[in-house]
């Protein structure tokens, strides 16, 4: 035993210090400190890179979730209308984000280690447009079975909700991986637990507002860029972006059928020639065809034609901007299919002291173009006509597919900013003998164009002997039309109101109708407004004008049946008008479904 112990002692390693190295306790301490500093720097750097990467992925994921939410509600607008599509959208989005955030631990336990939840995000995003298409058209049409109030909820619950919930869960996981918050920031536990959620929600809301502003590409952008901003194409672009932040997975292969469907079979893919062909193949069996379509700043705009009956219409989302007959020649103007637009031309028939004697000396301002029925008539009468239209696609389609004459002044601009500038620059009282106010209504009207301030601008631009005609569509039993009438009468005391069609006797349902309000600048009583009998030249050789030019069905104050006390609509006080928009838009949706077949709305 002792010899073995001695041998072991002899074999044990003995540190050898080189002769040129000066060893001391001080140098040893310095060396240890140097190594510790290096280890500390390396750990801090890695932690910082990890946190920056994690927070960067969080921001990207939240931005993609926000873009997905905006793209989804935009894709449903042509089928349901902008207001019904967004009625419960915010609630569903918030519910999806909360569900994903609160259940991320359970989802992670369910996922196999080789397939993290983030790998499923591109797959979920890819199927959103495909499933929305199947749920919005054909035999699976949710809009037909459920209606406009709950249809968007059902569609988004099956498409957008899973995507947002999964994204939110991945965000929670990423924030957990970015460790060190509790160690560095000494806060009460309840604040520390709440900060990541509050911060994520704030980033999401900011990204949601930013992506909503950037939903439409500038008209000067290349065609490829404009195509990426269309509704279905933007959803495909979001899918591709999800791939950049999700770990590569073979699951992505299962997204190929959805992508092929979107590119080859989805008729909602605007800007795609084969998608338009697919749409028209489905519509031709019912006698309809889409001549042209475009995504624009006010929504999905298209020109649809009924081949069997011989008329065409201009559509924006789930509403119609006008229509005219194609089987009758334009001589000298086209024959419109809706009488309300002809009623607007009756401003020329109102007798006002000091009225301009000759049409050639008159001027007219038209706010809102549509297909240009009224502007075309004013130009035909020789009146100098200026049209203010915010949407360049509407003006382009009206010029190319309808009979809008070229000899008018086109102002492609927001009417509020245009009239503000015009009023500030004018040196005399009034510039126009006639003003036509005919903007996109039906529960989705731009509220800014019905405020007291905007109507005061129109009052200032109207000559003392001028006449204004305002078109408004609404339900006589709801508050908006009553509030709008109060605002108009505050600016123009003398007004008479006419509806397009008389309400059927005994009808107890919603009373949704188009009305035209005629007002004069110098009148004080409604009785001051009288119409002269139309002459042959006033009719422009039009059968529709023979029947609708002179208004017939007058509306009295008792017809506005809302019992709510209304107030004047102002730029800083539009809540009352906006609150009832939902019910008005739902009523408008039902009217549109009776005017045009369901298939035309669903296939875009």
TrEMBL record:
Spans through the membrane: 58-80, 86-105, 117-135
Gene3D superfamilies xrefs: Vaccinia Virus protein VP39
Spans annotated as Disordered: 1-24
InterPro entries for this protein: SAM-dependent_MTases_sf (IPR029063)
Keywords: Membrane, Polyamine biosynthesis, Transmembrane, Transmembrane helix
Domain of life, per lineage: Eukaryota
Name by which UniProt lists this protein: Spermine/spermidine synthase
Organism expressing this protein natively: Sporothrix bragantina
């Amino acid at each position: 035993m002792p010899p073995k112990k001695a041998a072991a002692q002899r074999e044990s390693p003995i540190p050898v210090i080189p002769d040129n190295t000066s060893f001391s306790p001080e140098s040893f301490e310095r060396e240890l400190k140097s190594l510790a500093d290096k280890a500390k720097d390396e750990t801090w750097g890695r932690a910082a890179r990890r946190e920056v990467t994690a927070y960067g992925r969080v921001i990207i994921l939240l931005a993609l979730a926000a873009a997905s939410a905006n793209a989804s509600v935009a894709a449903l607008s042509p089928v349901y209308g902008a207001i019904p599509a967004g009625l419960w959208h915010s609630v569903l989005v918030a519910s999806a984000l909360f569900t994903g955030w609160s259940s991320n631990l359970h989802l992670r336990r369910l996922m196999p280690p080789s397939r993290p939840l983030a790998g499923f995000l591109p797959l979920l995003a890819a199927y959103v447009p495909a499933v929305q298409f199947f749920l919005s058209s054909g035999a699976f049409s949710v809009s037909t079975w459920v209606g406009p109030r709950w249809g968007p909820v059902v569609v988004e619950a099956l498409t957008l909700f899973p995507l947002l919930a999964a994204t939110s869960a991945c965000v929670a996981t990423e924030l957990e991986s970015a460790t060190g918050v509790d160690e560095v920031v000494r806060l009460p536990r309840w604040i520390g637990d709440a900060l990541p959620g509050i911060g994520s929600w704030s980033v999401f809301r900011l990204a949601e507002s930013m992506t909503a502003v950037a939903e439409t590409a500038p008209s000067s952008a290349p065609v490829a860029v404009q195509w990426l901003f269309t509704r279905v194409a933007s959803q495909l672009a979001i899918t591709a972006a999800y791939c950049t932040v999700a770990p590569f997975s073979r699951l992505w292969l299962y997204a190929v059928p959805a992508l092929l469907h979107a590119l080859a079979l989805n008729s909602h893919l605007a800007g795609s020639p084969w998608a338009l062909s697919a749409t028209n193949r489905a519509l031709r069996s019912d006698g309809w065809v889409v001549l042209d379509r475009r995504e624009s700043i006010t929504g999905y705009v298209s020109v649809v034609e009924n081949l069997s009956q011989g008329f065409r219409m201009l559509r924006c989302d789930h509403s119609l901007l006008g229509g005219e007959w194609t089987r009758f020649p334009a001589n000298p103007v086209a024959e419109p299919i809706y009488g309300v637009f002809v009623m607007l031309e009756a401003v020329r028939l109102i007798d006002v002291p000091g009225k301009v004697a000759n049409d050639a000396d008159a001027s007219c301002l038209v706010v809102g173009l549509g297909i240009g029925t009224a502007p075309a008539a004013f130009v035909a009468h020789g009146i100098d006509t200026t049209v203010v239209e915010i949407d360049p696609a509407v003006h382009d389609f009206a010029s190319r597919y309808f009979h809008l004459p070229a000899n008018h002044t086109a102002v492609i601009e927001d009417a509020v900013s245009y009239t503000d500038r015009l009023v500030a620059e004018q040196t005399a009282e009034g510039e126009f003998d006639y003003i036509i106010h005919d903007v996109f209504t039906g529960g989705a009207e731009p509220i800014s164009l019905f405020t007291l301030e905007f109507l005061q601008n129109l009052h200032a631009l109207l000559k003392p002997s001028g006449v204004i005609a305002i078109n408004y569509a609404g339900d006589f039993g709801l508050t908006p039309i009553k509030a709008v009438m109060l605002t108009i009468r505050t600016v123009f005391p003398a007004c008479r109101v006419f509806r397009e069609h008389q309400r059927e006797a005994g009808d107890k349902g919603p009373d949704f109708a188009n009305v035209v309000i005629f007002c004069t600048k110098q009148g004080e009583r409604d009785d001051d407004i009288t119409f002269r009998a139309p002459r042959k030249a006033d009719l422009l050789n039009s059968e529709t004008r023979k029947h609708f030019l002179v208004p017939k069905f007058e509306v009295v104050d008792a017809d506005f049946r809302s019992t709510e006390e209304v107030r004047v609509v102002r730029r800083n006080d539009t809540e009352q008008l906006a609150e009832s928009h939902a019910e008005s838009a739902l009523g408008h949706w039902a009217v549109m479904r009776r005017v045009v077949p369901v298939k035309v709305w669903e296939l875009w």
